[in-house]
Inverse folding.
């Protein structure tokens, strides 16, 4: 929920007064500047190469005939590269000149380094040239001050919004369904006698899988310590990954045997009755009682929590601003609307910067229908008083820690995006610093130690950005992780959608999974019964004719 704040404007802090640099430190500064000059020269040289390669391709195309087809041969012979590399360089040069002219211009000026330009090209490769040009025009040249990780996040967020704005609701749904339909798994042998295995998942599936693997790896670590087994964390993860099908099949077999004993049809019938109540009463002595390990899909899923941060206008269908999935990054507005949340938690943000300033203590269970969820969201728009109260202890409470984690998301050090951090007091607690939201922020252990020694000085700003003054008297500024909320009338009604006729369902499609049906409500057909064993009719042997 956007809120205006009276403390938005703040004076620009001047660089702190520091003692003069030593001879060794001045040499360090000279080396820093020399390498930066080399990076700028490399960027200008690469921009010149891209321009010339694109000119070669254009002139070959104008010449007609087989000139363009023979150009890779010419480049391979002249520059001692393969023809495949020559074709890749031609395509890269044409992409920069046609779709990314601003990136190429900043490269030529030395204001954008090669590794940043590569991040721009890779992130905007799936776009049309028109969308790519609009994205780079919105992100650059300000984005030239970002490391590739932060630059990719901004590019992705803008790209998802612009692509969604070009489509109708029906087209967006079709595109999202086509993208989600590319889920798959794959295996491939390696040259050294091992096997590669992987999967293409939806963002929420991938994050849930990563969280589950983290929990399983921690359990295996304790088991290894008790058994004296020596394995690295990555080896434990690989062994668990290989064992997952066997673990799932063993659990299904145990579950099927118990359900067969309890005379329950279907291998995945929910453990709830028709009226919504529990199918079994654990306190009732009579009747079948499920074992302690029998968990429903809801109980299993409840052990993994996924957090998606979404503007209110996006949920209400009034904006195409993308959401942000923790441990993943930006996700499209259409994908966010397809997610069926279990609960909502209101986050109040600054209306100008989008920086969170308060978080509800408890989540609100989500309604079952779209209309009910919309009413819940509108009810959350009621005004609320935000107070940044001081806490007497050093370590923040769970409520304050939740706000800091949601607000800052990762370490704010130069080029550091570590999700493992300390909640550091900007003004040290030992010197009177308060334990409150304004004075706390996440800093990784390396960045924390550099700040604690006093060699690095950290300044936090109200818009979420930070400024670091380094030990070599250099100044580095990093913007905050949030963007301003969309400026729309959140009380307006979303644009009407055309009614879409559903195709008739054939008999062959009767067993097809419906995407809107939760997994817990899908019934896996019971395993077919094994054929009865043949009867022994002749001295204990089944050898009657015909043989």
């Amino acid at each position: 929920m956007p809120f205006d704040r009276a403390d938005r404007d703040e004076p620009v802090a001047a660089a702190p007064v520091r003692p003069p640099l030593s001879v060794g430190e001045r040499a360090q500064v000279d080396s820093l500047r020399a390498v930066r000059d080399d990076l700028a020269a490399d960027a200008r040289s690469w921009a010149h190469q891209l321009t010339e390669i694109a000119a070669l391709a254009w002139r070959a195309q104008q010449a007609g005939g087989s000139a363009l087809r023979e150009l890779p041969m010419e480049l391979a012979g002249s520059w001692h590269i393969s023809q495949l590399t020559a074709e890749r360089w031609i395509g890269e040069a044409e992409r920069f000149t046609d779709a990314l002219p601003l990136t190429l211009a900043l490269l030529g000026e030395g204001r954008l380094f090669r590794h940043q330009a590569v991040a721009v090209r890779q992130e905007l490769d799936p776009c049309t040239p028109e969308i790519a040009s609009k994205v780079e025009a919105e992100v650059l040249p300000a984005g030239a001050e970002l490391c590739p990780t932060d630059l990719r996040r901004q590019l992705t967020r803008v790209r998802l919004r612009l692509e969604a704005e070009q489509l109708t609701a029906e087209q967006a749904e079709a595109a999202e369904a086509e993208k989600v339909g590319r889920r798959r798994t794959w295996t491939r042998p390696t040259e050294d006698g091992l096997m590669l295995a992987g999967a293409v998942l939806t963002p929420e599936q991938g994050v849930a899988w990563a969280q589950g693997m983290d929990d399983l790896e921690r359990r295996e670590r304790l088991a290894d310590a008790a058994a004296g087994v020596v394995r690295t964390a990555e080896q434990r993860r690989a062994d668990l990954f290989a064992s997952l099908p066997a673990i799932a099949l063993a659990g299904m077999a145990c579950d099927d045997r118990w359900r067969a004993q309890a005379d329950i049809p279907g291998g995945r019938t929910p453990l709830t009755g028709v009226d919504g109540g529990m199918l079994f009463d654990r306190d009732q002595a009579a009747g079948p009682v499920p074992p302690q390990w029998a968990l429903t899909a809801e109980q299993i899923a409840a052990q993994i929590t996924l957090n998606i941060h979404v503007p209110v206008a996006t949920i209400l269908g009034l904006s195409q601003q993308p959401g942000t999935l923790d441990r993943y990054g930006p996700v499209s507005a259409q994908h966010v609307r397809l997610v069926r949340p279990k609960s909502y938690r209101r986050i109040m943000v600054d209306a100008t910067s989008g920086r969170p300033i308060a978080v509800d203590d408890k989540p609100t269970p989500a309604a079952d229908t779209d209309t009910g969820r919309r009413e819940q969201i509108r009810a959350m728009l009621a005004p609320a008083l935000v107070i940044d109260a001081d806490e007497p202890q050093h370590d923040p409470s769970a409520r304050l820690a939740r706000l800091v984690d949601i607000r800052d998301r990762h370490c704010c050090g130069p080029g550091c995006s570590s999700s493992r951090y300390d909640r550091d007091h900007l003004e040290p607690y030992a010197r009177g610093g308060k334990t409150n939201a304004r004075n706390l922020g996440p800093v990784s252990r390396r960045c924390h130690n550099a700040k604690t020694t006093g060699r690095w000085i950290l300044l936090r700003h109200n818009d979420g950005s930070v400024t670091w003054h380094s030990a070599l008297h250099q100044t580095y500024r990093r913007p905050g992780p949030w963007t301003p909320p969309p400026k729309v009338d959140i009380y307006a009604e979303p644009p009407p959608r055309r009614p879409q006729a559903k195709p008739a369902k054939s008999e062959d499609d009767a067993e097809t999974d419906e995407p809107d049906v939760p997994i817990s409500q899908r019934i896996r057909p019971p395993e077919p019964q094994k054929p009865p064993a043949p009867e022994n009719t002749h001295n204990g042997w089944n050898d009657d004719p015909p043989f």
User: Anything to note?
Assistant: The radius of gyration is 30 Å. Residues 270-288, 508-524, 536-547 have pLDDT under 50 and may be disordered. The first helix runs from residue 23 to 63. The CA atoms of residues 390 and 436 lie 5 Å apart.
